[in-house]
Every structure is written in C-alpha cells, then in structure tokens.
Design a protein that fits this description.
8-stranded parallel beta sheet; 3-stranded mixed beta sheet; 12 helices; globular
Amino acid sequence: MPPLIIAHRGASGHRPEHTLEAYALAIEMGADVIEPDIVCTRDGVLVARHENEIGGTTDVAEKFPRRRTTKEIDGQPVDGWFTEDFTLAELKALRARERLPFRSRAYDGKFLIPSLDEVIELAENRRAAGRSIAVYPETKHPGYFRSIGLPLEPRLIALMHARGLRRRTDPAFIQSFEPSSLQILRPMTELRLMQLLDEGADASPARLAAIAKYADGIGPHQRLIVPADAAGRLLPATSLIDDAHAAGLFVHVWTLRSEDAFLSPSYGGDPRREYEQFASLGADGVFTDFPDVAAAVFRRK
C-alpha cells in the first residue's frame, strides 16, 4: 500500500493553515488524514492552531490590541496573544491569516478559527458520504497547559470518545513531541499514539524500544531518515524506518513541502521525487502541506 497522505494543518500550501477550508480542500485533493494541532481556550475548548500564540496566524492584534502580553512557554519567553486568554466566542471573532511570507495572502481575513470538534465533524461528514477520513490531533505545549490548569489530554479523549473515536482501528491518531503527554494518554484510550521526533533527536534502537512501550508509531523529521549536508544536498538514508518497523512502530514522516525554501536541491526542483523516495524507503505515511502532489504520486495509474 502507498503511504497515508496526512494533510499537515490541512492543505496549508494552498489555504491558511488550521481552517475548515484548508481541511476540506485537503480532503478534496485526496488526503487520507487531516492534522490539527490543538491548544485550549480560557473556557476549556480545544481549538486548531499551530501555537497558542496567535499573533502571526490571525488578526488578533487589530481586534484585541490590549490583550498582548509576554509569557514563559516551555522555558522560553514568548510575546503576543494567547488562546488561553480568550474564550471560544472571542476567538470566533478573529479571522485567519497566512503564516509564511512566501505563500499567497489571497485568503487572509476570510476564514474562522475552528474548534477541534468542528474539525472532527468535518471528517465525520465525509465518512458518512462514503470517504474514510482520519483525524490526527497533536497536543501542543501540553505540559504548559497542564501547568495553568487547562490540561489537553482529558479534554481531547473526552471529545474523541464522544465522537465515537476510541478503538485502535478507528480513523484517528494522536501525536505529541512531549512523551509525558502520550504517557498520560496511553491508559486513557486505545487510539493509536505517535511520538514526534525532531531533527537531531535520539532515534536509536534503544530509544525506539522505549517509545514502543507507550506509543504505536513515530513521526520523525525527514532528515532523521534522509540526512542532508550544510547545502541541503541529500546523504545516504539511515536505517530508521527499518529499525522502527522492527520495534513494532509505524513511521509517519514530516513535513514534505514543494517550495524551494524547503525542498532539497537534490530533487532538482521536482517535489514528486521526495514522495517517491520516502515511499521506496517504506514510510507508512507522510505529512505534507501539498496533499495534491502526494495524491498525484501515490495514486497514479
């Protein structure tokens, strides 16, 4: 089987990330899975945002200028506007903006911030129409949210179980960079859990064996599998995918993007070659901002 196409924050190469319009477009383009990062509001509602600081992805500065503040998030000072200082109703007054300067601004100011429940409902409606679409929430800064009395994990499981997503075979995964979040989740649910691994992380067989005690898969940065030199030119692939499979873990690689700012020059400007490489190496899924490119590669006749 070809790798799962996981729409990273929706079709985020085409629409502002983490909007229902981005997720819906991803499904139309052929995504198997839609991926919302989740943070929490002041009134305890999970919403889809890349970070709890929303100054760069919404018009919050214009609508709530006095809410700007500085907080310590995961040991680092962060200045801006934070979801935990707003109710869901207040966040619904905002409109999404494109985060990356080299992507289109044509849709800025048009789309709302969705709750996680709305994202799950979107996938649910597509399943009811005969298309199996999975959801793949990531707990963002879960330790921080626990420290301020807004833990993500119980809210997430309550919502997903209420939506009928509770078994390992159900169309859902949960991911996090923080092992403690997954370890909290493990006794709460049978849903598949995935440990994210950033570039430079320990991905040794010993670490994989430890991860397998609480998670079902790993999500490695693409350079943990195919390293590159300082100029971005690709080096020989590592054994990480084979090592993870040997430990009983699936492998979902992140993040494949088409722009030159992200694409290795070794692919000669053709992003399809990156998908072909990771499929040939045995990846079980790929996170991508461009699910249309992934679908063109994996589903061609």
